[in-house]
Amino acid sequence: MVKNNIVLIGFMGCGKTTIGTKLAYKLKYSFIDSDKEIESHSGTNINQIFDMYGEAYFRKLENEVIKNIYKLHKYVIATGGGIIKNKSNIDLLKQNGIILYLKASASCIYNNIKDDESRPLLKTDNKILAIENLLSQRTELYTNYSDLIIDVDNRTVDEVIDEIIKMRDYFEKSSSYSWT
Ligand code: S3P
User: Whole-structure pTM over 0.90, yes or no?
Assistant: First the structure.
């Protein structure tokens, strides 16, 4: 099967949704966000899902959503930061997409989301510490599961998008990726 999705993975607050939306627009791809899909299917928000049913239930919903969206064509897919906790999510997404890891440092992430209370896993008195801990647990997975790594620290959305687009040649040369 020809791969023709772009899948963005990375820690909370690294810019997957913002970058993904604009990237899709520039490429004339469609855009989908797995968290938004979970929220619209469940009719509630992620904080409430965690509060009422717990993380394990959220991960089940997340996996159900991935089982549907990995089959799409010409989509930029923004994933939740914990997508890598379930390898089967990545196995599915890889079937029809190239996986880009948007790599951000803990301080960059903290700056992006320090005032945002929408992430249940970061509801703590010491947000920077929570970010550092979780990031160090997950960095290896993000790295190992990605086809390409894009550094986002100290770069604008447009700079990151330009780099992704400049990689067009790489994608075209890689075995089964169709950019058109
Ligand atoms: C999570 C990241 C969130 C959301 C949920 C869990 C995580 O998505 O899926 O709060 O485990 O990293 P974003 O990465 O879009 O914030």
Answer: yes
